[in-house]
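Record 1 of the preview.
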Amino acid sequence: MFKKIFFLILISVSYISNGQQTSNATIETKVDNLLKKMTLKEKIGQMNQYNGFWNVTGPVPKGGDAKAKYDHLAQGYVGSMLNVRGVKEVREVQQIAIEKSRLGIPLIVGFDLIHGYKTISPIPLAESASWDLKAIKHSAALGAKEASAAGINWTFAPMVDITRDARWGRVMEGAGEDPFLGSQIAVARVQGFQGTDLDSPHTVAACAKHFAGYGFSEAGRDYNTVDVGLNTLHNVILPPFKAAVDAGIKTFMNSFNDLNGVPATADAYLQRKILKGDWNFNGFVVSDWGSLREMIDHGYAKDRKHAGELALNGGSDMDMESYIYFNEIENLLAEGKVTQDQIDDAVRRILRVKFELGLFDDPYRYLDKKREKEITGSKEILDGALDMAKKSIVLLKNEKQTLPLKKEGQKIALIGPLAADKNSPLGNWRIAAENNSAVSVLEGLQAFKGNKITHDQGVRLVNKIPSGFHEEVIINETDRTGFEAAKKAATEADVVLMVLGEYGFQSGEARSRANLDLPGLQQELLEEIFAVNQNIVLVLMNGRPLILNWAEQNLPSILEVWHLGTQSGNAIAQVIYGEYNPSGKLPMSFPRNVGQMPLYYNHKSTGRPGADGEDQGSVFWSHYIDEENTPLYPFGYGLSYTKFSYSDIELSTSEISEGTSIEASIILSNSGKVEGKEVVQLYLQDPFASAVRPVRELKGFELVNLKAGESKKIRFTITKKMLEFYSAQNIWEAETGKFNVFIGSDSNTIRKAEFILK
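->
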């Protein structure tokens, strides 16, 4: 029950509404009225975020850090909590903030809702492989629905970092290497999380992260430095963040890295000029965990006080778990190192989001035990996870139509350390999920009763099962126990399904890899099984692109299934047996060699692109002497159980100018025997410009479903706006001249036409 004084305060500043989201003007008035009533300490408190700290349903803590946090909550000195989840626990902390503090300002409760809450959807990289924006949006909405039923109203997602280096573990958390696809997916996820009405108890505030450049960490090593020019920053890194702002996202998170010598936490160019200035973003920016104090380790801040000064001046509004704002800002203000206007602006932004969430109308709006029980793990949530999982699978190779398998009359050997694993399919960033709650591949296949399935692990992948995502994964490099039993099973089988890849915690934060081969003894096991039975379907379970040269050269079929979440095994089995025709396309290029990293399709033209013409046979061109330049599987690549054919490109006109457009079209035909989906991709190239431009750039795509024998005309509209880039003049503009247009099934398509921009 609310305290009487809380009601009086609410009434006095007109907090109570009709329960619907109020207008922006009304919210601004309420924010201003509340600010006038707040002390300096209460304002600084809103800029302070704490991690969960004690058993909140137990006794009040008696001492130490936990007591300090409790006391700060009761005094109104905490703006947000993170990692407190479940209706019972969230209610406890919200009640302290509401009923014990002077003004009763509600908490915003944050959580890493990355790809599901209790029910886990595919990792974001896998979802991105679907290229299905509607499905991705729906997946985010279902995650928000389940998490909000547990009292959470803010997610630290989506991660919209563009990344070109598969060594970086957090590739699993994003949308891959392309800024256009990344921008489209960013919008889908923001709209899914936040819905059309943030005031709904089924939605959560989204957070675009990590601002900015985190995906360009040198050598693919997490937390490492980033050094990129303005061209790359504006043309590649920033577009998904701008798309998120345009989609109405409410919060941003800055990144751990420095960018050209300035830690992102204190980067005023990023946070004040671009984000809050040029883009007119009116939400708030939260630091990443402890990133304020880490500026001391960067050698950028001399002490904690200096770190607070730099962060606030740089545009960080909320301090996540550094305790610096709370302890230092008051003194910094007295010394003139920060301003009252900066403090008020940060607090205004935080309060604004709380009003938009409806927390002042009802701080307990998310806290309904009945709703939590009904929604968590419901059929709707499970069905959505299964649908998303099937759409995320990418068929990389399928010679001799090995897949789909017959549903009866076959002896199948299911081999591999991940075949019966119920934990790895959950991937990383699934904090609220129960361990071993995924449907394994074995269990998924067992639902189909017509074949005889023999299961054998073959080899152990890890020496010790990690207790959580904070522990190192120790890979088995020596114990070959199980090889002979697996070979015997393979010898007696008609077909072998080998489920290999990365343990679930081998990708994610702090999970950088210098080697992208199959971990441990899996490649050795694969080759020994191949020696006794060559009819192998390789089922890859991983969180990043891997090097698969041997498999591509030798195996008839390869299925990229990623870490698909709770419904993993059911989705994989349905694809293997042809109940779902795979339609995924790669959002990241797969390398031939780790030495190619970073690897990406939209690389810039070079002065020596190839040895041809007069230079044929010369070594003096951009290449490796021991490996090809090209990826093993390019961006946008993915096969189907049917065949698609493309006509030549037709252009409605050969010229475009301001206010006009060109229609580029092809005829897509399903020339195979089964219904299927194809992602038709549009690429453009600006062959001559004021700055060196990429060899091609994705500018459109359409997911098309065709029945066997069906054809359809696919149309793309090309406008002048699509030709804009951040030019040598440091502005966004489209430069006149010739452009090339490509339409096809992946980034390597050679189907080409030309037009002129006047």
